[in-house]
């Protein structure tokens, strides 16, 4: 049995401290240790993006990161983006524009999109398609995902303008 | 009284019933990350199962040594066929009347086949233990080509008596499974002997995989105290799974509860019963603890239900003017090591006999030979209704080949052969009765929408420019007019394992006027909780927002055959409407009592019963619901509930016209989709937003299949496409923008006229993309090139045609 490591993580603003085998994958930490089952496992090879979370401000596929690599990191998962009472703009936009069907890719998709809109608040359709290419969806054909993200971008921008 | 006054319109809109683009009720939990998929399930003391799998495609298993694995801390048990044999569970029946090894019984027949099942404390220990199981194999000759398999002396299925008939009649060879025929062979041969023109071609529809984003999995929990087994899993047919589990385990059906929680896409992959389910059930019975098994992606692609793999040798006969007189098809179907196709019992090749398509073809003959090879078993309907996509691809390619033979425009050739509107209900030469259609209207609308004539002109100019060396890009116009056959199906000819393919709906109206309805189907992304409530809202006058839809729990939902083959709307949707009508009939009696008039003197109006001729006297459904629970009404039982089991009188026949305009780079083989127009006619439209979403998704699956996705093997039977690195799933970047359109030709026999739509875009999309590739090269002599049309294969087409100079 490999020696366990002492791990500290902040996930959705909450601190966690535990011992884990260095080979434990971050997605298993989140799903099985911390009971955050929003991020999903779809491929184990970094292709599908269902496990996407934000690690220290970057979109990361948590199925191919060891929890040891995330030691000390600040993480955000879909559960940290919004609540049922105060949903993230993207969570509302995906529902409004039918940006999901089976829902399996949705947490990763929305988590990635939230980062994309931080990086590029005014994306074109082409930039969205390129920026979301790390997240696969088998149900929607992406058209309404793109539409949802465009709608969320304009809403976020309108809110920003109103605030200024 | 049926005039749409503003007041009445408002009441109709408030119901959010048929035709409303109602937002989905499922989305709140999914967008919050609060879905409940099988791998999210965590039970106290839950163990994890994992498989030792064969690295060989064909080998004898000489010995299995589990000692080292058992010695690992955290390993609870390792099961092999020898452990399952005393229970009779080392083999299981398949949906196709064959049987399949649960764990390798003396030999393996495909790479990745289950050899041993490890049960351990967690998934990491289980994975470690899998590595420690020592299996000694003796390699055997591998057969990956079905044509060779039919000639080979190598016997794949040593467990079968070669002289004994199979589940579907006599077997011609030890690697042969069945021959299935439809149509009139002699008459068809006669037509071909006398035909003006005959076009002949081999059309191969390659092996692929439904690859839902969530893989297959289950959690089995045997409660030894009360003797009840609960099985959660990714099941597209939970009730059928319960019956199968009961039949093979001997546990009485009332002691088994099967639950399909949220399912992360199915597309046919989650219809069948897999070794993982059986082993997990056994493991839970043995250990008395819950056991979870979830495939990884490689296991999913390599071992659970593939799709297609049909070699379709075709001939089409026509007059000089292009009127089709006959169709002939012989299909060689590669079923892999076990026949685990998911088809209705009487249809071992599914509904392949819909291969006369949208055309009035007076004489036809089809034969299908199923063959064993050293490939994974399966043969499921990947977003289609039982081999319909193979049939549609076949006829839509044959039409194009005939157009080349006749030097005719392929759009015009289709038009002159379409079944006319006045011919419905139409009896096809291969035995189906098409319910309704208006193909010419759809076709003309599609051609006009894309500016077909201008496109052909542009294409001709492009060919000239290419010949002059001014461009290296060609233009392809991919046409398709498909007819589906969905909604299996009438119990008289459709069953799975002897279970008639009806479906069901049970409604309970609560005293305060809201309701719960339960169905025998199960959503995997289709939005049933949204759309079935809409059907009911229009039928019973209670707002869709006040109706909860529940599916997937066999302890509570009425028996049904599940969701695949676009059958939910045609069958369970019909059951909903019929159950709703029973509610309405009782509500009418209650309303009449409350209004002190005769039953016949009240009529239904949106959300209430009104006295005929006196609309100001009425009782709303809400008032009626309360009365059902608080009034003693003479001759009427209290309560307001209904159940309907619906056996459809016929299939439904959705159709559509798709056009794909594609640019092809002759030097790189890359393609770019400039335009994709999809017109669907699925009869009555329940929720246009959801229909459109289904079309986008199905077209993207079709894009994948046509342009790159395949399950490929080398000569040793190694699966070369076991990860998403090799198995093509399009990203947003590769996926084009789609234009959707529709016509509405209701089904005459469905209670609300709906036909089903989820699979149409996959069925029609594949030939549209493929025909675009072929069409781009038509001017240079291309007749047929097999899918998938990845960049290399397109480059090869150009190279073979001498276009690289």
TrEMBL record, chain A:
One of its GO terms (molecular function) is metal ion binding. Transmembrane segments: none annotated. This is Carbon monoxide dehydrogenase, small subunit. Residues 5-81 form the 2Fe-2S ferredoxin-type domain. Pfam families: Fer2 (PF00111), Fer2_2 (PF01799). SUPFAM superfamilies: 2Fe-2S ferredoxin-like (SSF54292), CO dehydrogenase ISP C-domain like (SSF47741). It comes from Ruegeria marina. Keywords: 2Fe-2S, Iron, Iron-sulfur, Metal-binding, Oxidoreductase.
UniProtKB/TrEMBL annotation, chain B:
Pfam families: Ald_Xan_dh_C, MoCoBD_1, MoCoBD_2. GO terms for molecular function: anaerobic carbon-monoxide dehydrogenase activity; carbon-monoxide oxygenase activity; copper ion binding; iron ion binding; molybdenum ion binding. Keywords: Copper, Metal-binding, Molybdenum, Oxidoreductase. Catalyzes the oxidation of carbon monoxide to carbon dioxide. InterPro entries: Ald_Oxase/Xan_DH_a/b (IPR000674), Ald_Oxase/Xan_DH_a/b_sf (IPR036856), Ald_Oxase/xanthine_DH-like (IPR016208), AldOxase/xan_DH_MoCoBD1 (IPR008274), AldOxase/xan_DH_MoCoBD2 (IPR046867), AldOxase/xan_DH_Mopterin-bd_sf (IPR037165), CO_Mo_DH_lsu (IPR012780). Dimer of heterotrimers. Each heterotrimer consists of a large, a medium and a small subunit. Residues 32-141 form the Aldehyde oxidase/xanthine dehydrogenase a/b hammerhead domain. Gene3D superfamilies: Aldehyde oxidase/xanthine dehydrogenase, a/b hammerhead (3.90.1170.50), Aldehyde oxidase/xanthine dehydrogenase, molybdopterin binding domain (3.30.365.10). This is Carbon monoxide dehydrogenase large chain. It comes from the Bacteria. Its cofactor is Cu(+); Mo-molybdopterin cytosine dinucleotide. It comes from Ruegeria marina. Its EC number is 1.2.5.3. It catalyses: CO + a quinone + H2O = a quinol + CO2. It is an enzyme of class 1 (oxidoreductase).
